[in-house]
Amino acid sequence: MTEPHASFLDREPLLTDEQEARLLRNGTQDPKGFSGDHVPVVRFFDPMGPASWLITAERVASGQRGDHDHFQFVTYYGLADLGFGSPEAGEIDLIDVEIAVSQNGGRLVRDDEFDPRDRPLSFFEDLARKHGHIVIPD
């Protein structure tokens, strides 16, 4: 298993071990890429703005540059709402998200109260298209 993705701002893990395991399990179910209508595992948000993300899966790929430079690419899949009225599902790079959020004086925060109630990502996509932002109903 990979180490939990840690925020470069506060070095606190963004994901719990359980979340990391579920995301990896969801991300490896189809060797051709992200697929399936998984229940979101975690919600991230920017407390300084309207942006939020629902994450359903994670893929880890290894690479090498030269003889000694080994590295890993970590890509997430989910629903991204940047606050512009057009949320969309797709691949998400959490490092890029953290950089963008930090440039506006914020930091990426995990919503520990998020409960998707076993509703798949498509449920949240439909609501987001209708309302122009991610909606978490009771």
Average pLDDT taken over every residue: 85
Reported for the largest beta sheet, the result is: 5 strands, antiparallel
- The order of strands across the largest sheet is 4-3-2-1-5
Structural class computed from helices and strand pairing: alpha+beta
Using the CA coordinates, give the radius of gyration: 15 Å
Succession of helices and strands: HEEEEHEH
**Could you tell me the strand content as a percent range?**
25-35%
Question: How many DSSP E strands?
Answer: 5
How does the SSE layout of this entry go?
Layout: H1 17-27, E1 42-45, E2 52-65, E3 69-81, E4 88-92, H2 94-103, E5 109-110, H3 121-131
Antiparallel strand pairs: 1-2, 1-5, 2-3, 3-4
Written account of the structure:
With 138 residues, the protein is an alpha+beta fold. The protein has helices at 17-27, 94-103, 121-131, and strands spanning 42-45, 52-65, 69-81, 88-92, 109-110. The protein has a 5-stranded antiparallel sheet with strand order 4-3-2-1-5. The termini are far apart. Mean pLDDT is 85; it is low at 1-10.
Characteristic terms for this protein:
alpha+beta, 5-stranded antiparallel sheet, 5 strands, 28% strand
Gist of the model:
With 138 residues, the protein is an alpha+beta fold. It has three helices and five strands; from the N terminus they run H-E-E-E-E-H-E-H. It has helices at 17-27, 94-103, 121-131, and strands at 42-45, 52-65, 69-81, 88-92, 109-110.
